[in-house]
Here is the input.
Amino acid sequence: MHAGGPHGASIAVAEITSPITYTDAVHHLLTAALAAVLVALVMGQCRKPRWLIGRLMLSTMNRSHSRLTDWGLGHVAIEPGFSVLDIGCGGGRTIQKIAAMVTTGTVCGLDYSAASVAAARRLNRDAVEDGHVRIVLGSVSRLPFPAGTFDLVTAVETHYYWPSLVEDLREIRRTLKPAGHVVLIAEAYRREGAVSAVMGALMRMLGGAQLSVPQHRDALNAAGFADVAIDEQRRHGWIVARGRVAETPGSR
Ligand SMILES: C[S@@+](CC[C@H](N)C(=O)[O-])C[C@H]1O[C@@H](n2cnc3c(N)ncnc32)[C@H](O)[C@@H]1O
Here is the structure.
């Protein structure tokens, strides 16, 4: 096709009105479906890491969650003799950080992904061998520990995946000693006044909950925790939610 250009010059322009054929439409649909499956496959590794791709995601998360974890752990007292449980331990970086603080105590990691347990054991090999750290396969909903075992339970970037937050927090409370603390640390949450449509869509795709600040508070209160406190670092979009087991008799 030809058209008149500046100064009357004749120029060729591309044909842009060719109709979309049935084959083109099928091709576009298949490409979009494949892209969606790939995104879901990669993002699904955050929820339950598996295979080689899961191992890569675990090592990425060890790095990318490090500053968030330091910030969150800064909101609780961690004493050298503490017995600590890290739930949804992933690649094991949080366990490593806590083990460095709990020099005379013990750290236990738990995750329902075999790939996470293996990666966390690899990262903490020496501490696992000398008995300072233990890492087990299991679900937050049925913790394989007797009542009153831990001084502190931590959970970094995982609680929004749990099947029943309030019930799972009650199960955590069972394993805590009187005056023990739970601390939930995350950057995936619903911030007041923030436009979070992308994060919301992503979380829906992953089957995770995008919890607001009041929802964090309500869940901890409903699970029976006392002194519930929430802090945000709004510049980075981080949240830390914590609660304490009341020491009064009969409160458990
Ligand atoms: C996004 S990763 C975070 C890992 C690690 N805490 C970190 O900060 O890098 C979430 C982890 O929680 C684990 N997880 C999710 N739901 C769980 C459940 N119901 N019980 C135990 N672990 C769970 C996943 O297997 C995964 O290793």
